[in-house]
Amino acid sequence: MNSYIEDLIQDAVRRQEELAGDPDRIRAALPERAARKVRVDRTWRLAAVGAAACVAAAVAVPTVVLRDSEGGSGPAASPTASSTASPAPRAGTFPLRFRPTWLPPGLPERSRSIPLTTGPDAKASTVQTWSTGPVSGPNLSLTAYRSLEDSEAPLPPNVVEAPGGSTSPRLRDVDINGKAGRYDGDSVVWRVDSETRLLLTASGLGLSEDDLLRVARSVRPDDTRLHVPLRVDRLPAGVAPQFATVDGESPTSWEASIFAERTWAAYVSVRVGTVDHGAAGEAVTIGGRAAHLAELDGDTSTQGGYRTDWRLTVDLGDGRRLTVYGGSGLESSAPALTREDMIGIGEQVEVDPNPDLGWLGG
Amino acid sequence: MTFEEFVALRLGALIRYATVVTWDSYLAEDITQDVLVRAQARWSKIGQLDAPEQYVKRMVLNEFLSWRRRKAAHLVLLPKETLDGVAPHVPDRTDAVDDRDLTRRLIAGLPPKQRAAIALRYYEDLSDEQIAELLGCRTGTVRSYLSRGLAALRAALPADQVRT
Fold it and tell me: Which of the pair, A99 or B151, is modelled with greater confidence?
């Protein structure tokens, strides 16, 4: 039985927990903190960027084309080193691989995201999200991420492994269809094959343990594919596609995007959909359509970890808009992308006029 | 899972943990941001772990207990006389709300390792052995941290409230 003092302590730690800062604000401040660390690490980083620039110059401007991923376990993005490669324009479809067959009632699907990188260094995951409101609010998400069974763990003393297995009574072992999983209160993670783990997280939904585990145990391999209704043929040297996302409230309120970056140095975000990001700036013509190119001044809120230098907006008609953001590393003294880069990217974007969005909000 | 996905999913839990371990919401934010920036650089390894969150929590704890961090934070350990000044022994004091407020202030005055041990026991529900693993000390030392921490609280609270 707890003593009165122990009861007071438990009450105190719960009240202390309530004083925690707003995660959104802290997350927004991370790029600046990272930039500060980058400044500390200036010497080695500048050396690395210099080496990368030499390699990029040697292979000229790369062409990056999103191609169909036919079968297999992962998505495909095929970079080539030739700017003359010009495959037939077609939007890509990418496997989601796993789907829950049971969900709590009233949770429509709001977002699907797939990686555009492959290989052992692939970082991005396949993520599906269900929520009652905006996807940024309380939601349920299923993340499939690459995790090799024989991957090397970091060296001690940082590996936290308590005697007997589980690291905490809150983090306990569970069985997910015969696979060992770990449950920690609002998420469960388990390995489904030698290269893949699944993470199911209920954020702010108040989902019971029984329901969360029921969703996890209902997950099955699935051949559903995400149709990404846009394609970007050419990106500036070294800028490589990372992931594509389609999200929204319904087939009439949506946005599809492709994010590409040269880590820490430059990024490009191409967005197509019904979302209006604003139209201002120099009047230009993109693919015969009236467009606007705005040069932004020190915008660090559009893309975490980067300073956004450019915004290109094109009205595609029928309530659809194309927006291309381009930016630099926070330390860059000059924009990584030029005006011509932005216009060139905009002219290369191909948009599927009949996107498959029936799953949104369903 | 990418670093960005980890942050999106687990930052809330991580910042709450740091707030309890440090007992200082501002220091918690500072430490959490520093730790996340360093974790991002090593995410190719950390992201492969069964429980990346536990790893990052360990980083938060290490950062809090590090000499550099303690010096930077200018933690001031309150002497017994100061605690008495904050919490005079008033035998007939029975207001539980006051006790709760007092307890929070008293915990804030404990040495960092005692405070961390209390956080790990009463917030993370860890055993003596698990706390010893995290703090890098013997189990007996953990028991000593906890008993000394509780003794300090017991000494500062009204005698008639210190019951089992």
Answer: A99
Asked if residue A360 lies in contact with residue A254, where contact means CB atoms within 8 angstroms, the answer is: yes
Write the residue in B2, B47, B134 that is nearest to A160 by C-beta. Answer: B134
Residue A154 has pLDDT above 50, yes or no: no
Q: Is A310 left (phi over 0), alpha (psi -120 to 50) or beta?
A: beta
Residues in chain A with CB shorter than 8 Å from the CB of B99 are 8
Q: Closest to A17 (Cβ–Cβ): which among B19, B118, B157?
A: B19
Q: Where in chain A are the domains?
A: 25-72+80-91+229-362, 93-150+166-226
With 0-12 / 13-18 / 19 or more C-beta atoms within 10 angstroms meaning exposed / middle / buried, residue A165 is exposed
Given 3.30.200.100, 3.90.320.10, 1.10.3720.10, 3.40.1190.20, which CATH number is that of A93-150+166-226? 3.30.200.100
pLDDT tens for A302-332 read: 776 678 999 999 999 989 999 999 999 876 7
Residue A13: list chain B partners with CB under 8 A: 20, 118-119, 122-123
Per-residue pLDDT reduced to its tens digit, A169-224: 455 789 999 998 878 777 788 889 888 888 888 877 889 999 999 999 999 999 99
